[in-house]
Predict the structure.
Amino acid sequence: MEPFDVLIVGAGVVGCALARELARYRLRVGVVDREADVAEGTSKANSAIVHTGFDAKPGSLESRLVRRGHALWTELAPALHVTLERPGALVVAVSDDQLAALEALRDNGRRNGVTDLRVLSREEVLRREPALTCDVRGGLDVPGESIIDPFAAVIAQAENAAAAGVEFFLGEPVQELRAQPDRYCAVTPRQTLEARWLVDAAGLWSDEIAGLAGWREVRVTPRKGEFVVFDKPARRLVHHILLPVPTKISKGILIAPTVFGNLLLGPTAVDGTDKTDLSLTADGFSTLLRAGRRFLPALQHEAIVATYVGLRAVGAGSDYGIEVDGARRLVVISGIRSTGLTASPAIAEEVVTRLRDAGLVLRPNPGYRPDRPAPAWRPGHPRPCADPDRVARAPAYGRVVCLCESVSEGEILDAMRSPLPARTLDGIKKRTWAMAGRCQAYYCTADLLVLLARQRGVPLASITKRGVGSELTTGPTRTAGGTR
Ligand SMILES: Cc1cc2nc3c(=O)[nH]c(=O)nc-3n(C[C@H](O)[C@H](O)[C@H](O)COP(=O)(O)OP(=O)(O)OC[C@H]3O[C@@H](n4cnc5c(N)ncnc54)[C@H](O)[C@@H]3O)c2cc1C
């Protein structure tokens, strides 16, 4: 078989956005990820905000790509049926120093091309957000800040790419890269994938992939971000994304509504060395609760339904690292730290432009469509089980499996039969929001396991949370041009 024109290592939001951008052209493109699904790395554990870039460093690559990404998501979200809402943000100052910083932040935003920022008085902030602490001194209105379904943001881009012929190899860690004069051989436990161009979009592990490719040293370290998710009744407490005044190291601990109807509090920012440490710490938890209650005293009466942890990929410099080495036909994307969800479609555009400049021939793919069919449900829309006509036509939409979130068997089956099918419990959760409600999977797991085992034709006992026990030897997914 002909080698891939481009092989992308990493099916996070960056790799999948790039796959979609490359799908516009007549190229053979592959995406390989060690996990059994897309969006299993940092891309599934972030604040889910599409940033305007008001607080980015003016003149940086990050600032330019976040601005462009924000604009692109405005078009992309409806085309891909990804839920995006624009509640806007308020940067809340609770001290004199912070109050003084607001004007500088506004000016910084203007330098980045975000011109609709406004400093608000204490009274106006409290009028808009009555549940805020009475310590508020003032605020900065950032109307463009948005919230998005972070899972669909990846899945939709990946599905769109797969529909246009991009091949996905999931559950296949790249363990070795052999650079030959005209191609790379990416060795996984299952096969060797050959490609003319290699793109390292491995997030936290981009240093490791760059090393395997024989590229110069890349430094990536994890910065832990812990989150707490409040149950849906807490959502009534806020109308905007509430941001603290940012510091040099972090955007700080925010309080944000989610498109799923919950309230999010986080993240912490703790530098570490262990890229697998996704544990919630006692310190982190109490830091979050303290920060949350300081802003929004009523939070102390609200129920927490979940916690999660994401790891930012911190590079050696403060800006994005995007390097295209034409001589080696290698792209290394690293240090996409806190804004990669927003910037992903712009990072993809940037990489494709640089690939073209480096000699990759781009001819339009006549089979490419920029949109994707609407899923049976997406956040912010009624569930299919609430539509009697639909249930009459397809009774599986009337058999509710997840009672907390009203997810029906029909939606679960759709998720398992989609272009990039859910093959794990987490995969079902990301696509349908089953198991994410108040009972946190207590009542529906057994039914979901049965459906999953039946669909995959494997024994019930072999299924684990993130895959099937023997995934790596028996079950990688190959989509699009391949088998499934
Ligand atoms: C706490 C926190 C909050 C954030 N909040 C926001 C926000 O609100 N808005 C925003 O825009 N951004 C936010 N971000 C940043 C954003 O989440 C990241 O920039 C983005 O998800 C990075 O995507 P990625 O594709 O580069 O990495 P990842 O999603 O980590 O993908 C890399 C992939 O590479 C795969 N991989 C690694 N090694 C191998 C190998 N050897 N073989 C095969 N595959 C491999 C991994 O399995 C993984 O799937 C936040 C991040 C964190 C941690």
Q: What stands out?
A: The two ends are 18 Å apart (CA to CA). The longest helix spans residues 61-80. The chain is about 30% helix and 25% strand.
